[in-house]
Amino acid sequence: MATQPRLTYFDGRGYGELIRMTLCAAGIEFTECNMESREEFLQMKAGGKMLYGQLPLLEIDGQNLVQRRAILHYLAIREGLYGSNLTENGLVEMYFEGSRDFMNSFDFLVFDDVEPILQDYRKKFFPRYLPVFEKILEASSSGYLVGKGMTLADISLLEPLLTAHEQFGEGVLDGYPKLKEFYKMMTTLPNIAAFLKGPHRRQSNTPEHVKDVCEIVAMEFHR
Ligand SMILES: N[C@@H](CCC(=O)N[C@@H](CS)C(=O)NCC(=O)O)C(=O)O
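^ inputs. structure came back:
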């Protein structure tokens, strides 16, 4: 029997969550190894699988893949979650990067007092991303961002939409009917619905978790 892929990261969302979601969306069974201490991390590093000494690491197809974007693109190409021609690939990349920026704009969530930032956030970031993705979906006949089926761009967009729902509640996409449909469709796809309820889905990162990870990788933690 072929060995299952193994994802090594920390027991939180961070750079690992989209990889977990993509593996699950593609129906790939995988195991996880969570770094819990500095000793464990250093031991893993000494094992020589982490090219730049960083995580996440995905062991798959006899390879030790690092760099989250490289891992995601490898999976996308392997699993047919990419475009079907050069034009579509350009769109997948463009929407993937935009949705990554949208996701990165939630980085403040690791601070203790997010309430005042949340007020500001809605005004600043929603108008940049939500109307753009709404327009793309209006022009789509499949309900997906690119072409006829799901691509990495859709999975990538789902992550900030899930976070937006967690932070702002159910009505967060009011006024964006196509995005609402997209969100409903994506979250009810069997593999994704199973991921959201299953053991690979992590709770939202807390300041405590981020502090722990900083200790493990010996990085300064700023609140
Ligand atoms: N560009 C890398 C960055 C990975 C990264 O910074 N990982 C952090 C944990 S979230 C890490 O392993 N830091 C340890 C270090 O830099 O020594 C990626 O996208 O995967």
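Residues 14-15, 53-56, 67-68, 217 surround glutathione (CB under 6 Å). The longest helix spans residues 115-138.
thumbs up if we can close this ticket
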